[in-house]
Predict the structure of Ribosome maturation factor RimP.
Amino acid sequence: MATGLPSQTQVIELLDGEFARAGYEIEDVVIDARARLPRITVIVDGDTALDLDTIAALSRRASTLLDAVKSIQGRYVLEVSSPGVERPLTSEKHFRRARGRKVEVALADGTQLTGRVGETSGDTMTLVVRDDRARDWALRAIPLKEIVKAVVQVEFSAPPKRELELAQTEAGT
């Protein structure tokens, strides 16, 4: 590469093993060579939440590995971050990792739902939804293949305790 930056594939190959040992996987790598200081952005996700200390540790590991690559010429900016709340949930692992989070879901039949992600098992996700007739919360099993789009919603207040309890329990218990 004319910029002296590694390719997306090279960055993934270089960092993947180290990140996997820490319990995280690389979701994406974006390289912006047009920026004043070229930017390498590594998006990571895992079954445990990414806090600032973890991101800092992963950044240090990535920086050490990237700095050892002789083809990288000059300076660059490295950013390690999580996928962010606006990322669509597209696979079983995304739903599993979003357990307890509020999501908007569009189903293949045109139905739109808002609820809290409960247990995800195999090809089914349990969604905690409001049952207005019963004035309570209900569990709804949704086959992943029926989900056209699902996006985590930002919440500004604490959810009801009962809703969270249902999202954290096994479906049907």
Observations:
- The chain has a mean pLDDT of 87.
- Residues 92-168 form a domain with the SH3 type barrels. fold (CATH 2.30.30.100).
